[in-house]
């Protein structure tokens, strides 16, 4: 009802408004940030969609060129990875087919060799009077029959040698017996003369004693026994001669039947020759057994290879059914398409996520349009002005806070006089000014935040000699696909290199580049650093090992030409095991700067 109560209510109302203003300020700032981020994401999404369309067009051209390259051999190609796998599998199958053909050829040779030995054994058996080989008779059976014939011939030869030895022994005994008989006859004549004189009836001399007579009788008995034995030995010698002649006739008959060319030779020499032939036949049999064993092993390996081929074909058919392919040649292409689709979907999802983070709640299309409408050259001056304004407003806010504090102190000491009303009016004015200044401060803070994010995406830093040279090298290696390089700052405030598209408005981070383009970026910076080093130091050889395996032919040619230019300052040693890179170098690099050394196996 009085002024003091009304003033107290007004002050309470002002405090509530001030508290509410502080509470809502953060929400307003957050909303403004989200709106700005949304617009940024929209613009980035549009840019990424354009990049995706360009990438799809480039992919279609690459696929057409890829199909043309394989069209020479009338093959519908799949992805390079699948075709590389197909080439490896085809080479492995070709090696297996070659191995199988070699083994079949060896098996045929073994069969021919077996047939030859079988024919030779059959002929030898016919020569010795045996039956020829039958149609179903194997070489092993022929060898067994030949061994039996050889055993019989060895037995006959052994018997003949034994008979010859006994004949010689009996001849010596006969000669000795004849000599003894002559001596005995001489003695007998003498004794008969004497005995006749002594004992006429016994033919002994009369002076002969009984012992002498007994001795004479004993000698006569022995002589008669020897004569009887000599007769028996004579009969035996005749039998041995008869058996020997019979063996000779059999051997001669065998030679006439089996080896007519040995007829003119003596029986002993012909027998030795037949034995030698038998030895050779045994050697042939051993070799035949070894060849048969090898043939069985080759047949076993051949069956194993056929089983393995059947399993591989079954696996390929299963893979074709799972992939929906008509033939297993289409499996690598289906796998490559699936992997490529997954990679593109993942990259698209990542890019959309990044755009949504940066758009501040705006749609991606609006964010991309807003980003394209910002002039990068005007960002730095605007940021400086906003920074100064923020500093000035911050000082003013601090002064107001101090004033509000002092006024509140005075308000606490109010005693209801007119001075309180004056102070209340002054406080109301300060509150009104504070509301205006706070709103202005919030707008400036939001503008500063948005501009800082824009500056982090577009600001150029460090335009030094190395970066300038890297720009030229990167643009040359990418055939103008990128205008150069630029230093940007990531979310952590760290400087990173990004690629700049022609026109300077579109930038691409390393994570958005292909593997080949990322390698070209690194190589450009490395070569620029090397050139700067060579300007201040002695030249050292620069050695690289297959750095072009992820480059297409055009970019590989541009990189080889860049290395050729650098070779004027230092030696470049380039290792590669890809023949087509050597051919590209021979066709596009100055002959005076190119020296090729091929390493043998």
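^ structure tokens above, recovered residues below v
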């Amino acid at each position: 009802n009085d002024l003091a109560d009304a003033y107290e209510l007004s002050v309470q109302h002002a405090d509530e408004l001030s508290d509410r203003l502080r509470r809502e300020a953060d929400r307003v700032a957050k909303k403004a940030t989200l709106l700005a981020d949304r617009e940024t994401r929209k613009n980035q999404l549009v840019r990424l969609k354009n990049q995706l369309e360009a990438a799809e067009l480039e992919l279609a051209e690459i696929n057409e060129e890829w199909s043309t390259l394989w069209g020479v051999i009338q093959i519908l190609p799949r992805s390079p990875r699948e075709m590389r796998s197909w080439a490896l599998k085809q080479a492995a199958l070709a090696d297996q087919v070659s191995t199988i053909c070699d083994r079949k050829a060896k098996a045929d040779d073994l069969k021919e060799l077996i047939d030859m030995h079988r024919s030779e054994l059959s002929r030898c058996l016919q020569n010795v009077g045996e039956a020829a080989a039958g149609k179903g008779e194997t070489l092993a059976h022929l060898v067994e029959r030949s061994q039996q014939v050889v055993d019989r011939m060895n037995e006959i030869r052994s018997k003949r040698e034994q008979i010859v030895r006994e004949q010689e022994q009996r001849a010596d005994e006969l000669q000795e017996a004849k000599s003894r008989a002559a001596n005995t006859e001489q003695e007998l004549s003498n004794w008969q003369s004497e005995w006749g004189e002594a004992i006429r009836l016994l033919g002994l001399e009369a002076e002969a004693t009984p012992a002498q007579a007994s001795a004479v009788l004993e000698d006569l008995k022995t002589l008669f026994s020897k004569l009887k034995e000599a007769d028996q030995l004579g009969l035996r010698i005749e039998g041995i001669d008869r058996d020997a002649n019979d063996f000779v006739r059999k051997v001669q008959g065998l030679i006439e039947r089996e080896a007519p060319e040995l007829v003119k030779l003596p029986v002993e020499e012909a027998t030795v020759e037949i034995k030698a032939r038998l030895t050779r036949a045994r050697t042939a049999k051993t070799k035949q057994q070894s060849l048969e064993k090898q043939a069985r092993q080759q047949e076993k390996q051949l069956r194993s290879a056929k089983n393995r081929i059947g399993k591989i074909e079954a696996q390929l058919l299963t893979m074709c059914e799972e992939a929906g392919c008509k033939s297993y040649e289409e499996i690598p292409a289906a796998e490559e398409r699936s992997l490529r689709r997954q990679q593109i979907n993942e990259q698209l999802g990542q890019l959309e996520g990044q755009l949504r983070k940066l758009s501040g709640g705006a749609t991606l299309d609006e964010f991309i349009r807003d980003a394209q409408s910002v002039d990068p050259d005007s960002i730095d001056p605007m940021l400086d002005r906003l920074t100064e304004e923020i500093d000035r407003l911050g000082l003013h806010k601090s002064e107001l806070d101090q004033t509000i504090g002092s006024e509140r102190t005075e308000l606490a000491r109010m005693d209801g006089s007119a001075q309180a009303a004056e102070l209340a009016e002054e406080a109301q004015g300060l509150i009104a000014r504070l509301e205006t200044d706070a709103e202005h401060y919030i707008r400036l803070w939001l503008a500063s935040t948005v501009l800082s994010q824009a500056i982090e995406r577009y600001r150029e830093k460090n335009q030094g000699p190395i970066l300038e040279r890297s720009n030229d090298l990167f643009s040359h290696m990418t055939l103008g696909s990128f205008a150069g390089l630029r230093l940007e700052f990531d979310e952590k405030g760290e400087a990173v290199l990004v690629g700049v598209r022609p026109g300077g408005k579109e930038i691409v981070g390393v994570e958005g580049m292909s593997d080949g383009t990322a390698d070209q970026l690194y190589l450009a910076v490395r070569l620029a650093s090397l050139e700067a080093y060579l300007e201040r130091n002695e030249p050292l050889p620069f050695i690289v090992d297959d750095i072009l395996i992820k480059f297409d032919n055009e970019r590989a040619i541009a990189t080889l030409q860049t290395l050729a230019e650098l070779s004027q300052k230092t030696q470049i040693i380039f290792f590669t095991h890809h023949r087509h890179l050597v051919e590209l170098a021979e066709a596009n690099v100055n002959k005076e700067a190119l020296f090729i050394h091929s390493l043998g196996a």
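The beta strands are 484-489, 495-500, 507-508, 542-545, 572-575.
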